[in-house]
Amino acid sequence: MRKIITPEEAERRLEFIFPRAAFDTVLSNPLAGTAVAALIYVDAVCSADDDAEIARWGRPSTVVWISDAVLEHQTDDERLAWRVAALRNSKDVEQLQESWGIPFQPKYRDNTRETLRDETFRAWREHHAIRKRPGIAVNSSKPTWSLLDDFADLFDPDMTDDQVRECAQQWRDRHMTPGTKLKALRAIKAQEAKHAVTVTLPDYSTRTLEPGKSSHIIKGVIEEWAPARMGEPVVLAISEPGNKVHIGDKGILQSTGIKIDPKDVLPDVLMADVNSEPVTFWIIEAVASDGAVTEGRRKALLEWAAQQNIKASQCSFLSAFESRNAAPAKKRLKDLAVGTWAWFADEPGHELSWYQMFPTADDA
C-alpha cells in the first residue's frame, strides 16, 4: 500500500496541480483533499489499463466516513479492515472503530456524497486524475472510483515541494490540452510573482528570485552584507535551482572572460569587489537547508574558478545562513572550510571567520 497523506497536505498539493486561479475550486478544496487521502488510505489506486475486476475501488462514502482518527491507524491490516467495513455500511465502520477505541465521527455528512461524485470526481475524471468503474449505474452502491496511479504519485509524502511542482507540471503536460496547460501556467506564474523575492543589485537594477529562504538569504547578502564588506561590490551571477542563472553585470563578465554555464559547479552568488587590488571574487553559498562551503565544496569551486582564469589568491568564500539558531547553521558551522567566512541574515552587522592560527605539520 502507498504511504498515507493527510487531507490538509493533499489539499495543499492539489493547489499546486490545479491552481485555483485557473481551475474550479472543486478540484482542490478541502473535500478534494480528503478524497485523495481517503482513496489512498484504502488503496483505491489503479492504472488506466488495469482490469476492472482486479482494480480496487472506493465509494463517495469512503471519503465522507473517513476521519483524522482513522488515518492514524496506518498498518496494512488496519487499512484493509477499514476498507472492507466501508464497502459494507456505516454500522460496520462504527463497530470496527469502536474496537480501535475511536468514535465514528465522519469528516462530512452523508449528503456530501453527491457533491463529491457530481463535482469533484467528475472534474477529476475530465483531467484524467480518477477512473470510473465501467458498467456500473450512477446510483449504484457498488464502489466505482479509483485514483489513477500517476496522479496518486503526486501525493507521495516523501516528495519535496520542488519535486511536487516539477512532477505536477509533467503530469499536466501528459494529460491536459495546450489551452488548459497555458491557463495553469499563467496562474502559477501569477501566484509565484506574489511571493517572489526582488533583489536590488548594487547598480540599482533588480532581479526576481523564486520564493523561499534561500532567496531571502541571497537578498540579505547582496543588499546588506556586500555594501558593508566590499569597497565597490558587483554582482556577476545568481544561481537558482533548476539550472536557472541570473546574470548581474554583463559588461564586467564579458570583460573578465568569465563564462557562466548552468551545468558548471556554480556558487549561489558570484560577486566581485572591483575596488580591491587585485579584484577579489566572492564565492557565496546561501545555506537554506545545506550546501555550506566545506573543504570539499571549496576545492570544487576553486577548480571552477581556475577554469575561468581566476587565481585562488583572489577568491574569498562566504557561507550565508538565515540565523545562528537555524538548523543548517547548527549542522554545518563545524564543517566550514578553513579560510572562509559565515554571515547570518538576522545579524547583518556581524561576520564570523574561520582561520588557522598556527601552521600544522602539513604546512611545514
What does this molecule look like?
By secondary structure, this protein is α/β, with parallel strands linked by helices. The protein is 41% helix and 16% strand. Helix 1 packs across helix 2 and helix 5 runs antiparallel to helix 6. It is elongated. The chain starts with 6 loop residues before the first helix and ends in a 10-residue tail after the last strand. The relative contact order is 0.08.
Order of helices and strands: HHEHHHHHEEHHHEEHEEHEEHEHEE
> How many separate helices?
14
Averaged pLDDT, please? 90
Structural class: alpha/beta
Q: What's the total number of strands?
A: 12
Radius of gyration: 27 Å
Shape: elongated
Low-confidence stretches: none
Strand content: 15-25%
